Amino acid sequence: MSSTVATPAAEPRTNYLNVDYGWKSWVFSTDHKRIAIMYLITIAFMILVGGSFAILVRLELATPAGDLLQSETYNKIFTMHGVVMVFFFLIPGVPAVLGNFLVPIMIGAKDLAFPKINLLSYYVFLVGILLTLTAAAMGGIDTGWTFYTPYSSTYSNGQVALAAVAVFITGFSSILTGLNFVVTIHKMRAPGMTWFRMPLFIWAHYATSLIILLSTPVVAITIVLVALERLFHVGVFDPTYGGDPVLFQHMFWFYSHPAVYIMILPAMGVISELISAFSKKRVFGYPVVAFSSLAIAVIGFFVWGHHMFVTGQSTYAGVVFSVITMLVAVPSAIKVFNWVSTMYKGDVWMTTPMCFAIAFIGLFTVGGLTGIFLGTMGLDIHMHDTYFVVAHFHYVMVGGMVTAFWGGLHFWWPKMFGRMYPENMGRVSAAIIFIGFNMTFFPQFILGYMGMPRRYHFYPEEWQVLNLLSTAGATLLGIGYLLPMVYLPWSLKFGKVASKNPWGAKGLEWETDSPPTTFNFDKVPVVTEEAYAYPEGARHQPEAKVV
Amino acid sequence: MWKGIPLFPDSASTYSDAVDYFYLALVVISIFFTVLVAALVVVFAIRYRTRPGSAGAVQIHGSHGLEIFWTVVPLVIVMALFVWSTKIWFVVTRPPAHAEQYYVTGKQWMWKIQHPTGQREINTLHVPVGVPIQLRMISEDVIHSFFIPAFRVKRDVLPGRYSTMWFEATKAGTYHLFCAEYCGTKHSQMIGSVIVMEQADYELWLAGAAAGESPQAQGEKLFAASRCDTCHTGKPDARGPDFKGLWGKQVQLSDGSSVVFNEDYVRESILVPTAKTVAGFQQLMPTYAGQLGEDQILSLIAYLKSLSDPAQGGAKP
Amino acid sequence: MSSVDATGLAHHFEDLEQQREAATLGMWAFLVTEIMFFGGLFGAYVVYRTMYPEAWDNASNQLDVFLGAVNTTVLIGSSLTMALAVRCAAKGNNKQVAGFTFLTLLLGLVFLGVKVIEYKHKWDHHLMPGPHFELNGVVGGHEQIFFALYFAMTGMHAFHMIIGAGLMLWVIIKALRNDYTPQNHTHVEMIGLYWHFVDIVWIFLFPLLYLLGKHGHDIAGAATGGH
Lengths: 547, 317, 227
Prior knowledge:
The structure holds three protein chains of three kinds. By secondary structure, chain A is an all-alpha fold. Chain A has one domain: Cytochrome c oxidase-like, subunit I domain (Cytochrome C Oxidase, Chain A, Up-down Bundle), CATH 1.20.210.10. Chain A has helices spanning 24-27, 32-60, 71-90, 93-106, 115-137, 151-155, 160-187, 200-232, 245-279, 286-299, 315-343, 352-375, 377-383, 387-417, 423-450, 464-494, 543-546. The longest helix of chain A is centred in the middle third of the chain and has 35 residues, at 245-279. Chain A starts with 23 loop residues before the first helix and ends with a helix. By secondary structure, chain B is an alpha+beta fold. Among the domains of chain B are: 100-208, Cupredoxins -  blue copper proteins (Immunoglobulin-like, Sandwich), CATH 2.60.40.420; 215-312, Orthogonal Bundle (Cytochrome Bc1 Complex, Chain D, domain 2). In chain B, strands 3-2-1-5-8 form a five-stranded mixed beta sheet, covered by helices on one side. Chain B has a five-stranded mixed beta sheet with strand order 4-10-9-6-7. In chain B, helix 1 (16-47) runs antiparallel to helix 2 and helix 4 crosses helix 6. Chain B is elongated and about 100 Å long. Chain B starts with 15 loop residues before the first helix and ends in an 11-residue tail after the last helix. By secondary structure, chain C is mostly helical. Chain C is built from six helices and two strands, in the order H-H-H-H-E-E-H-H. Chain C has helices at 16-51, 53-60, 65-91, 94-124, 143-176, 186-224, and strands at residues 134-135, 138-139. Chain C is elongated, with a radius of gyration of 21 Å. The N and C termini of chain C lie far apart (64 Å). Classes of the chains: A mainly alpha, B alpha+beta, C mainly alpha. Chains A and B meet through helix 3, helix 6, helix 9, helix 10 and helix 11 of A and helix 1, helix 2, strand 7 and strand 9 of B.
């Protein structure tokens, strides 16, 4: 790859951050890096919003009686927690922030294929957020993030129509981002960047984008029908007129189950990068890991019925959905084993991102294995809609996606802002998050098997000990998440100036400046080797020696 | 079990132990793989940590053998689990032929239950030990879900469509009854108890509870009161079909297709008579939507069903 | 910052060929999402048609096949004029592009006008789904669901037509400014693709909504004594 001369840190070159100033240079920017930063700020805000709802939920559940909030308020709080976290953090988190910033750089392009559409996607996202917050301020919604009919369409007293419009609009933001990634990855790769030289982060984003393009429009039209039902009582999901409320569930999960893979696949892409960089090794079984992403994307489209084992879909439909669900476990297991093997005989450097990556492997393994519990019908008939489900998807989503998000953010922080974060603070927060997370959600597996249904405001007294443990863990987890939100912004001013490649990692993003120039590279890079082409006997050089 | 932190709910149905064994097997498998992965990660992180004078990374591209190994092993395990779980699934979803029929109506936020002998209860279900019981359930408003953790079974209760579940209790006691599908403000208070009693105690309880009429007796009265009998006279020149011996049979419709004469068809025809007209009859029947509640429709169904039951004096099938 | 040079090449592409390929792939990917979008509605249609075949035939027979057929012809005509506009753009003949696009726009507006007449008719006959829906004196029949889907499907289609009309205006303006060259006319090509897609959706909607009842009617007609 093209070699570059180290730049003196004292005299920063022109980069995407200092190329021009003023608010207009940001809000009208079509630079994918600036858009990524705008997404980052917006999403950080949404994490705080969704997180405060989570804390309220856990505080309420510290006691069996509904003594902190009224039932109606509690229902609105957990709904808002779900809506905000799913649609405004979990789904866009990695692709819109890290993906937006890195996809063009990693494949050697100057920008995404459609920069204006990229900017549009951000504003569409913003409109979605504003409408959601408006719906919350105007009385909120109490349907759960799943909007099940006919409760949402006929019986709820909340602002369902407004929230539905908000989700609809946000979906288009995803579609525009996915569209941009697909075209960019197909058409904008630098010379020599063949498909099998692409970093696994790119493969993961490609698979994710395909899912977004094929599934999001289905939920969009479903949400339109719910809004029509809500506003004009048209009868499509209303059993009074012969409508079938279960059809809504089919259409909803046709999107929302693949949406789970929209959340986790980019996170898996991040983990592949982290493990490779901090083990100084090629990713073990690169093509297998790449294809496992595609396999998950494809299989993920045929498993939606496992959300409906107990709704009365036919027994045999259940059998088919169950067996396909089992198949998803295979590519997931393949990924985990390949990550672990990548560390074997590596040169492992336990930086903050690597701590997060290892936490991810552990938490995702538990999350994935408990998914098998729920995919098997004999158990699901007992566990469906209990806290076991809540614990399972938090292990995958929060333990998986959120942990990877933090890991990726720390890893690429020096690239994005040209500053190092405080390393020891990072490791401490990773440890707190890992402990707090397990304390919060592990007891919920037990609660679920005991039979505690989800979305319960009151619960029987014999379950208080476990619930209290969970609430205590949530407090710890909250502290763990707040720490980076303090020291990362702090590092922007006080952090050590980062070199071009503080980790000594391979990849085009480490060959350009930190932060990169507006067009990412001074001249188009030519790729001559595979991804992660670390030399035999590669060793980490702590950064102090490099600079 | 630890004091204060229970790990298992009561196990009180014929299939609850089977579910628990399967669960335990999965727990063991999960612990094995979690410990394996965690141990490897921790050992590699320590053993191969970077340090002055460390050997550096050995580049390995991959291994076909290993990839096949950890593709096939999980595949075999999950397929075995699938077969095992599906066996349980068929037990839980297929009621024995002779199960006693109980009727359940869910509404925000209460469960209304009727025994085959006519007793009605709200949020409490008394059942005898050792008798297979089938619940036929419908909702008057939103989707609910009838969940008895001690029996390891739940089923969604839908508006506009009947759903069923069955169980046979094995141990006397009082168990939780929950609504598991979020149904609105007081979802967490749509709870109750399932009280399992020894046979003799159950008989005593039945005798003591306000008996009321059996569902089919109520249905018979309703059949007359709603003037169903003016057309469905059972005579050859009747303006509506005769129901004797019809239950569970295929019925020819006016558009040439056919439909099974069962709960869902009867309910649809009462509420939307135009939907599926039996061949050879004019569509004259008015709709009873808004006039008959779900409880009443269930009684009518119980009555129509009894007309085809030889034990009840109905025609032979 | 996404500056464009004199030939119409944006800064982040290497050459016009790459830019054109990107736009084409992007448009096709977008149309795939559109197929899934309408696919959700078609899925709901199939489910309910299987559940309520008689109601479906009854409701379908309320639609005006003549107006539907007129609109089908109009749309196919507009696809032709659109294709001609793209061909002229490839030759760099901006005047003809403007002319054919104007024709396309006109035909699109005719289609929307006919749609308004049809909607008005449904409104007058209480066929708008909702509490006031009434068919042959029956309130709350399953026919209501057909009409709910009819309005959702044709409404979504009409919405796409309106967006298409806006795009036509854009093409006309660009053509009048002589923006299209044989080397760079991706813009009009992409909008042409979109327009053809919207037409094809209608080609599926017309038989499913308008003609289906006629077919069912022949079988069921005698037994039900007509509608």
